[in-house]
Amino acid sequence: MTALLTIIVLVFITVAIWQMVKIFDLASANNENAQVANYKDNKLNAYLMLGFLAFIYVITIVCFVLWGDLPLMSNSASEHGPGLDNLMIISMILIFVVQTITQFLLHYFAYKYKGEKGRKALYYADNDKLEFIWTIIPVVVLAGLIIYGLFTWSDIMNVEQDDDTVVVELYAQQFNWKARYAGDDNVLGEANVRLINLDNANILGLDESDPNAQDDIITTELHLPVGKQVIFKMRSQDVLHSAYMPHFRAQMNCVPGMITQFAFTPTITTAQMRQNPDMIDKVARINKIRAGNKVEIEARGQDVRYEFDYLLLCNKICGKSHYNMQMKIIVETEEEYNAWLKEQKTFKNSLVQN
User: Fold this and answer.
1) Using the 8-state DSSP alphabet, how is residue 81 labeled?
2) Which ranges in 68-127 belong to alpha helices (H)?
3) Whole-model pTM?
4) Among the four residues 104, 120, 215, 291, which has the most C-beta atoms within 10 Å?
5) pLDDT tens profile 230-240
6) Angstrom distance (rounded) from CA 37 to CA 115
7) CA pair distance 50, 148, nearest whole angstrom
8) What does R_g of the chain's alpha carbons equal in angstroms?
9) Is the separation of the CB atoms in 168 and 222 below 8 Å?
């Protein structure tokens, strides 16, 4: 692959140098010997247009065959994921079809109407019918996509919280995440970064006098019960972050000084996703690469063998360690989730008494 890219780059450099030489020749020529395109030049450029059209089609097909992930979107693990994937697939297919047709017309007409001796261009002042067609079709298509997108967005964002909803706060800071669970009362306690007190381990700035904060649970690993709606309240301590959970098709900015919200229902446990054939193949490819870099990986104190896990990532460049700002997500059965939750310390029991 590297060799192919190198060859392509060299070809483009060669073409660029050739074009620059022609430009310099034209700039240095006087009016008597100025270059004027003749039929031979027009014919050559016309065939080059067809050649370039064939080139971009061949490259597209090669990319689909070698690196195309068909279906285009797969392995979503949230209830709203398939709907969002469908919107994305429809958009990409429409763009691909339009691009294919327009590129063909552009290059074909450049060939068909190349300059020839005795041929005169036909001047068209306007054509109301043609202009109506190429205006109304994009308007209808784009309006359909926008309306579909609005309905999809509304279904995702307009959620109602009930007694069975799990409430979790995602707390972002350079360069790590913390999760805070609402506890038995299912209500998050009040918090403010001004209340952070490292001396007594109040690392998220919870209001120690708030009764709702006493049973809150702070963790460095995000556990979610499968099949239950989870509402995330998001805060940032320092700069703009973005909570991105790719397999759940979820992303929301974490903004200092305000609380943002996103909700979804996990549908596939971590154990089930690990048994997905696509994921098994992906993990095998990753482990093959890691085996070839065994010495370097072990030198960093990391396990050579990779195992799939859902991840919460930061999707806004937030500093020098942005690339490593992530937290593991474990989706499990409700019984496993409840058992894990009971093992965690509540906020009031985690404070250091001075």
Assistant:
1) H
2) 81-112
3) 0.76
4) 215
5) 999 999 999 99
6) 9
7) 37
8) 29
9) yes
State the pLDDT at residue 224. 95
Rounded to a whole number of angstroms, the distance between the first and last alpha carbons of the chain is 61
For range 173-192, the mean pLDDT: 90
Q: Is the pLDDT of residue 29 over 70?
A: no
Torsion of CA 98, 99, 100, 101, to 10 degrees: 50
* DSSP secondary structure, 191-237, as one string: B-GGG-BGGGTBTT-B-TT-GGGTT-EEESSEEEETTS-EEEEEEES
pLDDT digits (tens, 9 = 90+) for 271-315: 999 999 889 988 999 999 988 888 888 888 888 899 999 999 999
Give the pair of three-digit tokens for residue 105.
């017309």
Is the confidence at residue 118, as pLDDT, over 80? Answer: no
* Residue 332, pLDDT score: 95
Take residue 159 and report the two structure tokens written for it: 């959620």
DSSP designation for 295: H
Task: Give the residues across from 254 on adjacent strands.
Answer: 241
Q: Count of CB atoms within 10 A of residue 135's CB? A: 10
Measured CA to CA, the distance from residue 134 to residue 136 in angstroms comes to 6
Distance separating alpha carbons of residues 253 and 317, to the nearest angstrom: 12
* Rounded CA separation 296/290 (Å): 9
Amino acid occupying residue 118: G
Report the candidate in 210, 174, 211 with the shortest Cα–Cα distance to residue 192: 210
Q: Per the structure block, which two tokens stand in for 199?
A: 């001396």
Query: Please, where are the H alpha helices in 34-80?
Result: 39-67
Please give the structure tokens belonging to residue 232. Answer: 């995330």
Q: Are 306 and 274 in contact (CB under 8 A)?
A: no
One-letter amino acid identity for 57?
Y
Percent of the chain residues topping a pLDDT of 90: 33
Q: Give burial (CB, 10 Å; 0-12/13-18/19+) of 207.
A: middle
Taking CA atoms, 70 is separated from 19, 32, 73, 89, 98, in Å, by 39, 59, 7, 11, 20
Nearest to residue 267, comparing CAs of 75, 56, 36, 12? 75
Where helices occur in 113-127 by DSSP H, the ranges are none
